Amino acid sequence: MTTRQLGELSLATDEDAAEVRVRWLGRSVARDADVVLARHLDEIVRAAADRAIVFDFTSLDYMNSSTLVPIAKHVRRAQSEGRRLTVRFRADVSWQATPFRMLTKITASKLVTFDAVPGAPV
Which residues contact 104 (CB under 8 A, 6 or more apart)? Predict the structure, then answer.
């Protein structure tokens, strides 16, 4: 497992032959989240090659609205490149459920899926 520490946010990456899982931990509070996250997300996506990618937000304590921009960009990028991507989030946490359900409406496809997890983090 590799962990990237970005201020109060950690991106913990675990991978196997089939997929790359990115667990978002801590708090994403950078006002310039696109600048802070873009390079790291680009590297993760590039390293995944043809494997599926999972962005797992179920253990994230908080994210501001600026964080959604780089997430949306990478979801759309995955979609345009024909990559398999799953966004896993907490259905019972409104600051996760509301933006991800909105993003689901505009980006969900056979390759890009959203997994609303009820209750406690997995």
Answer: 114
